[in-house]
User: Which sequence fits this backbone?
């Protein structure tokens, strides 16, 4: 993207969890995603995008809007709470937690308008038209918790969009609702930057596996939303349109519960009713990875107990790698974790305290969260626009480099953000 004039507008559509091989090798999968494939042909695209560690939605989306890895932007995982005994753990919903400027802040400093629909880590952000992704963690179905979203939406916007979408609300899937909300904002407020987060493929890939008929059907529904957005944004002002994802997905058959071993080694307390209680050890499960934290300085016996637990967990076959502090530093990942367990192929980690350490999966058939070099975890990037070279292959790029392309699309100098990435040339 050559340095654009500020008249070019930018639309970014994130398809949570979409693997790049689904468009690169579409013939192998026989997916009906005509809109995505047409964008690949008419624009620039990557064979693979290497995500961040852990390869999960919230740290990755924070990287996409800041151009820096988790260690620099401060969103190290999806959860804000390190207490695994807590029933309803809050997520990193709030933009003020970002330690560096984001795309929406620099868009505003240049006098332009931004909008976001369901974008992670965006609640409370300086976005002109914002319906953030946020819910009450105690709510059984986050998709139906409208009151929390309404409370954090730009004043008046939630009610206005809900009224406009009334005819479809009762039976539309979540991506259709997000797509319609985005189109309403686009037509009525003409933002210079529009960020939209689609979640259907991710949800179905977790439940049924990334290559399941259910996941493919969800991606085909997302593709239809992309087509509707493409139609809406074409023919007016010049627009750069980007379709990307935050991470890929791998299939799993077995669930491992490190908390079972950690509690057997007396690293947690329990109350009179047998409910687990926090001592000095914190933990965050992230599917393909499991982070462990000392919340207070441990004694010698506690360190030995953790070593024993690690040994036992390694013997189950569920652990591919123990990512230590030095390696976490080189990955620009969580500076507070004592270590992160990376799951072996076919396994994922849960937050279960009871039952066997390893069992056949009962809930999930797909996951992510591992080291981003794991095959299958490659994320996606496709960009089309007036000055973007059609059919250009960007090969393998890092997630943080995408931000430089988004900035150039908006005619912004990359030094307005904290990114140190080489600018990505799409011309």
Assistant:
């Amino acid at each position: 993207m050559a340095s654009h004039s500020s008249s070019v507008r930018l639309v970014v559509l994130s398809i949570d969890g979409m693997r790049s091989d689904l468009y690169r090798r579409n013939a192998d999968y026989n997916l009906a995603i005509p809109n995505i494939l047409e964008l690949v042909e008419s624009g620039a695209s990557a064979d693979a995008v290497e995500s961040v560690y852990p390869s999960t939605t919230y740290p990755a989306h924070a990287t996409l809007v800041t151009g820096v890895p988790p260690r620099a932007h401060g969103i190290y995982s999806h959860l804000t709470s390190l207490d695994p005994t807590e029933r309803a753990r809050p997520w990193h919903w709030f933009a003020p937690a970002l330690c560096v400027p984001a795309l929406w802040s620099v868009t505003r400093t240049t006098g332009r308008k931004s909008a976001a629909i369901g974008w992670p880590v965006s609640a409370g952000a300086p976005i002109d038209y914002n319906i953030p992704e946020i819910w009450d963690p105690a709510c059984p179905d986050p998709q139906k918790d409208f009151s929390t979203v309404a409370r954090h939406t730009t004043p008046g916007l939630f009610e206005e969009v809900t009224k406009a979408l009334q005819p479809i609300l009762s039976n539309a899937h979540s991506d259709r609702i997000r797509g319609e909300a985005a189109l309403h904002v686009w037509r009525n407020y003409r933002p210079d930057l529009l960020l939209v987060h689609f979640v259907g493929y991710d949800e179905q890939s977790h439940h049924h596996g990334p290559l399941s008929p259910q996941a493919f059907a969800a991606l085909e529904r997302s593709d239809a939303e992309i087509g509707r957005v493409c139609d809406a944004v074409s023919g007016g002002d010049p627009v750069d349109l980007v379709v990307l994802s935050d991470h890929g997905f791998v299939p799993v058959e077995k669930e491992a519960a490190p908390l079972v071993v950690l509690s057997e080694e007396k690293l947690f307390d329990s109350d009179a009713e047998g409910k687990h209680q926090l001592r000095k050890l914190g933990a965050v499960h992230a599917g393909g990875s499991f982070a462990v934290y000392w919340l207070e300085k441990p004694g010698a016996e506690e360190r030995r107990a953790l070593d024993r637990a690690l040994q036992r967990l390694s013997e189950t076959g569920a652990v591919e790698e123990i990512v230590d502090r030095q390696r976490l530093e080189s990955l620009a990942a969580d500076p507070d974790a004592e270590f992160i367990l990376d799951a072996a192929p076919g396994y994922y980690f849960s937050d279960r305290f009871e039952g066997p350490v390893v069992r056949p999966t009962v809930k999930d058939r797909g996951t992510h969260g591992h080291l981003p070099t794991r095959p299958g975890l490659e994320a996606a990037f496709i960009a089309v626009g007036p000055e973007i070279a059609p059919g250009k292959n960007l090969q393998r790029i890092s997630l943080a480099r995408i931000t430089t392309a988004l900035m150039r699309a908006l005619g912004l100098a990359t030094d307005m953000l904290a990114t140190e990435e080489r600018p990505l040339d799409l011309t």
Summary: The chain is about 35% helix and 20% strand. Residues 9-248+377-416 form a domain with the Alkaline Phosphatase, subunit A fold (CATH 3.40.720.10).
